[in-house]
């Protein structure tokens, strides 16, 4: 039987059992009593919910990190790189990174494994002329503890990248450290001389176009603008709409001004969102933007992010609790996962409810941050006909109460 079918049957069994004992449940006085009651429900094949949870706990921790597997994939990436098969090398190095433990592994090589894979991927990105992404991997590799004996490679590449990005002053500041690292390196003198010449010529060879490039790593986020500005009565909504309550319809938004088709009425960050499973290999699990250079989760190989910032946010808010159970959570439907994420996010943020003076048309209570644009699209809006890669809290429609 398919996992999705078993999950549906499990839900039906729980609802049936709870329905049968609803009068007993209704008489309970506290949330603690209700929780204990639910844990003792006979939910599946004669087992209580508490017993099922214990079984699932015994399966936790199978997150797939492996230094041996990571090293094997990195070696294959090295072979592809030497053959100038850069796209293949990029894929292999990325897969290697996903298997690398971020903490020290049992053989003590976990962090070195990660730093080497990141450094090698930066070399591929340099060949592909993805200089900003290359610089991200260089910095991440150094942070991960790239071996001192090999530092000359990264520092040399870092200077070249900074020149390519037009960050001439930053590059000049790094030249001294790169030259000193080259002098300390245990490599033939003729190779040292080649690297010195490359550093000296890099600044002279930079084009006028590159000199004027924006040097920062972060791209500017294009946040949609609310027509007529933001309302002071309805959180995150345009001044041109108001909230009403009508008999037979409940709570609804009503336009008070003229709007052209395609006008932006509400811009709001979702309180919580879950990436649809089919988008797991291609999108960031935090901001749901397409991922060009994946940054894997520190604890498992299954979840990826567009940046270390998104990885840290997810780990802080919810994924530190989801991580070791991730393969089990994939047995649960999307809204079951979203329910758990809502609870974990609320616990992590320990936030107060929204102010009574400000009505919100959805469930979130904070204005849009620079990192996200809508409940489902995050940094980049979806084009017409394109399905959203997330399932977030649904906004209240005109017919909902």
Strand order of the largest sheet: 1-2
User: Spans of 5+ residues with little confidence (pLDDT < 50)?
Assistant: 104-110, 214-218, 353-358, 362-388, 391-401
Could you give the order of the helices and strands? HHHEEHHHHHHHHHEEEEEHHHE
Q: Give the biggest sheet.
A: 2 strands, antiparallel
**Total of helices:** 15
**Residues in helices, as a percent range:** 40-55%
Cα-based radius of gyration, to the nearest Å: 26 Å
| Strand percentage | 5-15%
Q: Could you say which overall geometry the principal axes of the C-alpha atoms support?
A: flat
Mean pLDDT: 79
Secondary-structure class: mainly alpha
* Terminal residue distance: 38 Å
* Total DSSP E strands: 8
Oligomerization state of this entry?
single chain
Characterization of the model:
With 401 residues, this protein is mainly alpha-helical. The chain has 15 helices and 8 strands. The strands form 4 sheets. A two-stranded antiparallel ribbon has the order 1-2. A two-stranded antiparallel sheet has the order 3-4. Helix 5 runs parallel beside helix 7 (110-127), helix 8 (131-143) packs antiparallel against helix 9 (151-164) and helix 10 runs antiparallel to helix 11 (189-205).
Could you provide a short overview of the structure?
By secondary structure, the protein is mainly alpha-helical.
Which secondary structure elements does this structure contain, and how are they paired or packed?
Elements: H1 3-20, H2 22-26, H3 31-39, E1 42-44, E2 47-48, H4 49-57, H5 67-82, H6 86-99, H7 110-127, H8 131-143, H9 151-164, H10 168-184, H11 189-205, H12 208-211, E3 241-246, E4 250-255, E5 273-275, E6 295-296, E7 304-305, H13 308-322, H14 326-329, H15 334-349, E8 390-392
Antiparallel strand pairs: 1-2, 3-4, 5-8, 6-7
Helix pairs in contact: 5-6, 5-7, 6-7, 7-8, 8-9, 9-10, 9-11, 10-11, 13-15
């Amino acid at each position: 039987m398919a996992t999705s079918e078993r999950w549906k049957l499990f839900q039906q069994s729980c609802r049936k059992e709870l329905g049968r004992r609803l009068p007993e449940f209704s008489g309970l006085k506290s949330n603690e009593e209700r929780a204990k009651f639910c844990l003792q429900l006979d939910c599946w094949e004669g087992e209580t919910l508490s017993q099922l949870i214990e079984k699932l706990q015994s399966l936790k921790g199978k997150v797939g990190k492996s230094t041996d597997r990571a090293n094997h994939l990195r070696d294959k990436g090295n072979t592809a790189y030497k053959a100038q098969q850069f796209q293949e090398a990029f894929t292999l190095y990325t897969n290697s990174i996903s298997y690398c433990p971020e903490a020290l592994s049992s053989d003590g090589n976990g962090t070195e494994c990660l730093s080497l894979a990141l450094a090698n991927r930066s070399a591929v990105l340099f060949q592909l002329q993805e200089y900003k992404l290359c610089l991200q991997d260089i910095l991440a590799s150094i942070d991960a503890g790239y071996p001192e004996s090999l530092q000359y490679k990264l520092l040399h590449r870092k200077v070249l990248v900074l020149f390519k990005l037009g960050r001439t002053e930053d590059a000049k500041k790094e030249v001294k450290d790169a030259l000193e690292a080259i002098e300390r390196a245990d490599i033939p003198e003729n190779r040292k001389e080649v690297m010195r010449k490359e550093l000296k010529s890099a600044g002279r060879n930079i084009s006028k176009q590159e000199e004027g490039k924006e040097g920062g790593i972060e791209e500017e986020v294009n946040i949609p603008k609310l027509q007529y500005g933001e309302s002071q009565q309805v959180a995150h909504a345009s001044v041109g709409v108001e909230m009403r309550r009508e008999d037979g319809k409940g709570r609804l938004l009503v336009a008070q001004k003229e709007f052209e088709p395609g006008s932006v009425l509400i811009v709001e960050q979702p309180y919580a969102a879950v990436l649809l499973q089919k988008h797991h290999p291609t999108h960031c699990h935090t901001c749901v933007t397409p991922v060009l250079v994946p940054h894997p989760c520190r604890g498992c190989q299954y979840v990826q992010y567009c940046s270390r910032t998104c990885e840290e946010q997810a780990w802080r808010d919810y994924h530190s609790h989801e991580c070791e159970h991730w393969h089990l959570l994939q047995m649960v439907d999307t809204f079951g996962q979203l329910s758990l994420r809502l609870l974990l996010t609320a616990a992590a943020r320990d936030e107060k409810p929204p102010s009574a003076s400000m009505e919100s048309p959805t469930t979130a209570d904070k204005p849009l941050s620079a990192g996200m644009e809508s409940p489902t699209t995050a940094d980049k809006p979806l084009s017409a006909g394109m399905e959203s890669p997330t399932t977030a809290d649904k906004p209240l429609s005109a017919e909902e109460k």
